[in-house]
């Protein structure tokens, strides 16, 4: 049984994230989407809000669960008896950071492999930070995030309501 952890901030989750989850759920026996509870960052959505949004967005995938973690990723991965870390690679610009992250994690644990998934090209321009910026300025992000995430965004940014499609 191959258990894989898909870690990230998911602040908020995007269609790009859920597509990576879908692709990886066809390959690994179990996927744990793991939201970092890193107190150094000031997130827009609380970890509980992000967990709920993700759970609602992936509920049709029986081998996917959502969890929250703090501390080092490698320690968390081992505690879940997992051996794979999933990351998405959208463009060359992601590569440098992902390369550094994967090699640093390998330095701490030789038994954990990082596996990269490339999202559909229509999601390559999506990022959580752009979604937050666009939503806060009243731009419509309905097509860019799963339905449960859009619902939460509308609560957080009331300006979204006027821009909603019918
Ligand atoms: O969505 P993000 O912000 O790109 O995800 C980054 C994340 C959560 C995968 C990374 O910051 C992480 O693994 N944090 C946990 C703490 C840790 O292990 N840091 C060292 C990584 S080499």
Q: How many domains, in number, for the residues?
A: 1
Shape-level CATH architecture: 3-Layer(aba) Sandwich
Sketch the major β-sheet: 5 strands, parallel
In whole angstroms, the N-to-C terminal distance is: 44 Å
Please state the structural category.
alpha/beta
Number of DSSP helical runs: 7
Level-1 CATH class name: Alpha Beta
Instruction: Please bin the fraction of helical residues.
Output: 40-55%
For the secondary structure, the number of strands is 5
| SSE string | EHEHEHEHEHHH
Give the percentage of residues in beta strands. 15-25%
Overall average residue pLDDT: 94
How are the strands ordered across the major sheet? Answer: 3-2-1-4-5
Shape assignment: globular
Quickly describe the structure.
The chain is an alpha/beta fold.
What keywords describe this structure?
17% strand; 166 residues; globular; 5-stranded parallel sheet; alpha/beta; binds 4'-phosphopantetheine; Rossmann fold
What does this structure look like?
- This protein is of the alpha/beta class and about 170 residues long.
- The protein has a single domain (about 5-125), classed as Rossmann fold.
- Helix content is about 40%, strand content about 15%.
- The protein contains seven helices and five strands, in the order E-H-E-H-E-H-E-H-E-H-H-H.
- A five-stranded parallel β-sheet has the order 3-2-1-4-5, with helices on both faces.
- Strand 2 (about 30-35), helix 2 (about 45-55) and strand 3 form a beta-alpha-beta unit.
- Helix 2 (about 45-55) packs antiparallel against helix 6 (about 145-155).
- The radius of gyration is 16 Å and the shape is globular.
- The termini are far apart.
- Bound molecules: 4'-phosphopantetheine.
- 4'-phosphopantetheine binds near residues 7, 9, 72 and 105.
């Amino acid at each position: 049984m191959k258990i894989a952890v898909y870690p990230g901030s998911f602040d908020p989750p995007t269609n790009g994230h859920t597509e990576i989850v879908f692709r990886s759920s066809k390959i690994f026996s179990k996927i744990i989407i793991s939201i970092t509870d890193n107190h150094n960052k000031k997130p827009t959505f609380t970890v509980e809000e992000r967990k709920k949004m993700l759970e609602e967005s992936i509920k049709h995938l029986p081998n996917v669960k959502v969890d929250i973690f703090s501390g080092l990723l490698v320690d968390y991965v081992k505690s879940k008896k997992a051996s794979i870390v999933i990351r998405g690679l959208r463009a060359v610009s992601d590569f440098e950071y992902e390369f550094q992250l994967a090699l640093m994690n390998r330095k701490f644990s030789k038994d954990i492999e990082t596996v990269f998934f490339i999202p559909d090209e229509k999601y390559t321009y999506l990022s959580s930070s752009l979604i937050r910026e666009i939503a806060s300025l009243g731009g419509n992000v309905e097509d860019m995030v799963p339905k449960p995430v859009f619902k939460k965004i509308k609560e957080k940014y009331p300006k979204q309501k006027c821009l909603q499609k019918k």
